[in-house]
């Protein structure tokens, strides 16, 4: 099971944090801080895996990938495969890339809810849901299409109601 | 700069609507991004929270604005600031049916804001129920998403029917998510969905491969919990895996040109679970796993992920030589790769395969050493993990030294603790000499300090006390004096961990003056220094004062005149006024002991008797006289509790029991869990074994007598007892230690013969392989240092004078006799290990990798004499010497080295197995005994005990101050000596101490009773108190 997904920038600011098991707010912050602490002390050209049992509890592994100013971090247990998780990060980033064309940190900050929508299509309740970025894109686009569609529909009754109340 | 550039783009995007945010949000993010300090950032965020709070309190905010505020609050909370005031707004937003966007945002916000036990959940459950029935599948999906995060075991029944309905939803995306939601329910509360597990099986045959793939996740969990009930699915899984591997799935499931790799990985994991220890199931899987090895694309990351998973699967399958071969090939490819990730996977899989085929580590020794020296911490730790698995007595020194070096170099306390315990464990199991063990322990204690488990300290004390357990006393004495010497030296260090100090104090007290090298006053001075320097640590002080007492006692018993050192005098004075009753008592005891004559002291604290057993008179027959006298004087005779009319009244105290106990100054639990049950001598097994056997029969019977005790309580005792057994300490692996000398002698003979074997047969490498290898890689590349390390890790000590064996000739010889030997070996399967049989090398020509130097090995080489002996000797050694490419680097003479050393290592480690098993059985009993009784006495859920405790408390509250001198005289009659086992406490009492108040008398009594608490429970104390009254 995937325990948490995080995107942290190189200054240690969280850009996205999703925990799949219950953690208190303080604990989440502490975890983000700890993880950033070990991430930034890692040299280049080392493996993408890390031991995080000291702060995440027993049977947890961490896989991260460093893109430009961002660390993408997945934390999971022994029922997942490290290399496969590395590829899942790849899927996530590929999808973002497709979504925002040349994705950068700011895209992630500003499209916070879209980020979550994408992540929810890839990882669901701690399990891998979909690994094809095209598939994920399709689902996300469907959501945004329907959302805007429902907007335009709802605009009419809204205006009607406001007109009535006038 | 790049950020600023993209802000422009962002603005443009923001205006597009959809997911875009307003300018305010942009400002916020920008200012946070520019904040120079955490404080500044906090200020900005707090300001933002204030603004949002104000805005949200406005009754009619446009819904779109509301949505944005929520997103902003989610963002704020991610930065670590509390936004709980907005939770209710998020909940309200989920109710909104007019806009999908708003509902989704509402759900997003609640899943991020709330935990599954939050009060507001109850307000959402209804909405979720409704939304799960929605026609719009996106609404259903977001509701399912919320279900995963927010539903707890109490609310599962509310949504379960809807989720079940969704399992047959026309949209595959919904079916997938419904399965995962059910999986989530299972994880949160297995019982809630236990009747629905068949649904998972059913979904396995869903038309949509995605849904099938999703089903594998819950099935994996279910199978991990109980593999046997899913054995029938083996053919199904194998079939699915085959279809996936043969690319029967739609192209859309391909990932980086691999067919559905994530499904493959999950399936392989499941197969590994199902096949573990099951030859039949394994048989069905060989083909498909072999196929995957062949078809996997090792160039891509995901291909390697699948390959790694296949190796894991192979390691748990019933060993199959062909698959092992394929796995070994992959491992060597991983290890040779430049990618650290692959190296990591390689080391990990090596660790998995080492169980089934130990020789493959030797093939990759240099790669392993490279990984050990790699700057990457993760890789290094993984390698230590591997080394830990392959430690044997021949390489333990190198490995533990390496571990300690690494332990010293890191700051991470968690890992430090971990690796320290590993070091200790290895040292205990494989220690070559006791001296080395002590030195290693010293290092571990010095550097890992209080992170080390207390048990370790007690083990160390025990080792020093018992020595080799052989008749040869001089060795033991040497060991002790070297320990004393090293400790006196170490005491000079400024700051030592408490546990270590306890060991030092104990050893100095027990053996400080034993060899006569140091005068008593010198040792006592040192101990006083310790007590002074670590004055805040009561345990250390207690150990120190007891040690001082022992030394004085030895001096007195030896007839020497003792003068109290002034610093010691002041220490005693300080302690006798201490707040700690324990320290106080020790101080008084010491003063009392010093005042006695040589004979009395000698019987209270005999010299070097820490290993001797304490005799316990369980029947308390020594009290009979006294009881008789009292009865004659008109005292009430003892009435068993069952016959007492007031017995049931005690139950009314039940509610107050625990509080009462804590309110009193005295503790009525047993004094501390007897620190790790360190068995002190073999002889003591008998006495303590009795302890463990006895408690139960008398115990439940008594419990029955209290009518109101719920029956469940009865079970609590024994089950608890079982649990506690887990913590039983590790036993010693050293065969010479407490096993009869017979086994060690047989050990040495077998060692001798195997060395003989190695000499006659040695290793066999075709010279052709040698050539091809040499031409490819010049031997200069590998530094001699590394080779040496490799030799010590994988082979043992270097013996360069060994003659290289002419290879070709012998290959023929061994392979010709190979078949017969094999059959012979299998006949003796009972004595030889399975691994040895299976270690025959299979060299499938199609798998021959060109990058691998061809190494033919002599798979089995057995001395005919050895075989004969083997029939009688459990230490039969079948040695297969298998040389990896890397090992051969330095021409045949190095080969020779490897040829004989693993053999001896193996033989002795097999010896360990036998003895450690022997120890195992005896020691668990022993451990069980020691652990058993605290569970009865200490708080536990046992009502009976609490009742009795309570009664005691009450009685004690009115205990008069007079006490009975006879009692203590009798107690003194029994020699009670301290042992490390009891946390170094002395339970002697002096007759002069009669004036001590009853509480203390009671304390001494209590200590005495600790020895047989398990047996008599507490009612003995009742009687004592009645007598005292």
UniProtKB/TrEMBL annotation, chain A:
<protein>
    <recommendedName>
        <fullName>AP complex subunit sigma</fullName>
    </recommendedName>
</protein>
<feature type="domain" description="AP complex mu/sigma subunit">
    <location>
        <begin position="1"/>
        <end position="146"/>
    </location>
</feature>
<keyword id="KW-0813">Transport</keyword>
<keyword id="KW-0472">Membrane</keyword>
<comment type="similarity">
    <text>Belongs to the adaptor complexes small subunit family.</text>
</comment>
<dbReference type="GO" id="GO:0030659">
    <property type="term" value="C:cytoplasmic vesicle membrane"/>
</dbReference>
<dbReference type="InterPro" id="IPR027155">
    <property type="entry name" value="APS3"/>
</dbReference>
<dbReference type="InterPro" id="IPR000804">
    <property type="entry name" value="Clathrin_sm-chain_CS"/>
</dbReference>
<dbReference type="Pfam" id="PF01217">
    <property type="entry name" value="Clat_adaptor_s"/>
</dbReference>
<dbReference type="InterPro" id="IPR016635">
    <property type="entry name" value="AP_complex_ssu"/>
</dbReference>
<dbReference type="InterPro" id="IPR022775">
    <property type="entry name" value="AP_mu_sigma_su"/>
</dbReference>
<keyword id="KW-0653">Protein transport</keyword>
<keyword id="KW-0333">Golgi apparatus</keyword>
<dbReference type="InterPro" id="IPR011012">
    <property type="entry name" value="Longin-like_dom_sf"/>
</dbReference>
<dbReference type="GO" id="GO:0030123">
    <property type="term" value="C:AP-3 adaptor complex"/>
</dbReference>
<dbReference type="GO" id="GO:0006886">
    <property type="term" value="P:intracellular protein transport"/>
</dbReference>
<dbReference type="GO" id="GO:0005794">
    <property type="term" value="C:Golgi apparatus"/>
</dbReference>
<keyword id="KW-0968">Cytoplasmic vesicle</keyword>
<dbReference type="GO" id="GO:0006896">
    <property type="term" value="P:Golgi to vacuole transport"/>
</dbReference>
From TrEMBL, chain B:
<dbReference type="Pfam" id="PF01602">
    <property type="entry name" value="Adaptin_N"/>
</dbReference>
<comment type="subunit">
    <text>Adaptor protein complex 4 (AP-4) is a heterotetramer composed of two large adaptins, a medium adaptin and a small adaptin.</text>
</comment>
<keyword id="KW-0333">Golgi apparatus</keyword>
<comment type="similarity">
    <text>Belongs to the adaptor complexes large subunit family.</text>
</comment>
<dbReference type="InterPro" id="IPR017109">
    <property type="entry name" value="AP4_complex_esu"/>
</dbReference>
<feature type="compositionally biased region" description="Low complexity">
    <location>
        <begin position="736"/>
        <end position="754"/>
    </location>
</feature>
<dbReference type="GO" id="GO:0006886">
    <property type="term" value="P:intracellular protein transport"/>
</dbReference>
<dbReference type="GO" id="GO:0016192">
    <property type="term" value="P:vesicle-mediated transport"/>
</dbReference>
<keyword id="KW-0813">Transport</keyword>
<dbReference type="InterPro" id="IPR050840">
    <property type="entry name" value="Adaptor_Complx_Large_Subunit"/>
</dbReference>
<feature type="region of interest" description="Disordered">
    <location>
        <begin position="797"/>
        <end position="832"/>
    </location>
</feature>
<feature type="compositionally biased region" description="Basic and acidic residues">
    <location>
        <begin position="771"/>
        <end position="784"/>
    </location>
</feature>
<protein>
    <recommendedName>
        <fullName>AP-4 complex subunit epsilon</fullName>
    </recommendedName>
</protein>
<feature type="compositionally biased region" description="Polar residues">
    <location>
        <begin position="755"/>
        <end position="770"/>
    </location>
</feature>
<feature type="domain" description="Clathrin/coatomer adaptor adaptin-like N-terminal">
    <location>
        <begin position="52"/>
        <end position="594"/>
    </location>
</feature>
<dbReference type="GO" id="GO:0012505">
    <property type="term" value="C:endomembrane system"/>
</dbReference>
<keyword id="KW-0653">Protein transport</keyword>
<dbReference type="GO" id="GO:0030124">
    <property type="term" value="C:AP-4 adaptor complex"/>
</dbReference>
<dbReference type="InterPro" id="IPR016024">
    <property type="entry name" value="ARM-type_fold"/>
</dbReference>
<comment type="function">
    <text>Subunit of novel type of clathrin- or non-clathrin-associated protein coat involved in targeting proteins from the trans-Golgi network (TGN) to the endosomal-lysosomal system.</text>
</comment>
<feature type="compositionally biased region" description="Polar residues">
    <location>
        <begin position="813"/>
        <end position="832"/>
    </location>
</feature>
<feature type="region of interest" description="Disordered">
    <location>
        <begin position="731"/>
        <end position="784"/>
    </location>
</feature>
